From TrEMBL:
Keyword set, alphabetical order: Protein biosynthesis, RNA-binding, rRNA-binding, tRNA-binding
Domain RNA-binding S4: 1-66
Originating species: Liquorilactobacillus vini DSM 20605
Gene3D superfamilies, sorted: RNA-binding S4 domain
InterPro entries: RqcP, S4_RNA-bd, S4_RNA-bd_sf
GO molecular function, one term: tRNA binding
SMART domains according to UniProt: S4
PROSITE patterns linked to this entry: S4
Pfam families referenced in this protein's UniProt entry, alphabetically: S4 (PF01479)
Protein name: RQC P-site tRNA stabilizing factor
Highest rank taxon of the organism: Bacteria
Length: 83
């Protein structure tokens, strides 16, 4: 699954266009490597997202094309969150 779509479906980022912009700015890492919005995400990947001063690291637990709001947080596991 594409990175920008995964971020939107998992609701880590609300809109796919915003996810694309953030990824293209180099603020998202997949397994410690800078990722583009079109990068593939697979189960087991570790994503690091930089939101201003916040740094969030999550592990991809499952992929689902259409997750409902209450199922979205089951797609990932938060590993670390720094402010």
């Amino acid at each position: 699954m594409r990175l920008d779509k995964y971020l939107k479906v998992s609701r880590l980022i609300k809109r796919r266009t915003v996810a694309k912009q953030i990824a293209d700015q180099g603020r998202i890492l997949i397994n410690q490597k800078i990722a583009k919005s079109s990068s593939s995400v697979v189960v087991g990947d570790q994503l690091t997202l930089k939101f201003g001063n916040r740094l969030v690291t999550v592990k991809v637990v499952s992929l689902n094309e259409n997750a409902k709001k209450n199922e979205a947080n089951e797609l990932y596991q938060i590993i670390e969150e720094k402010s």
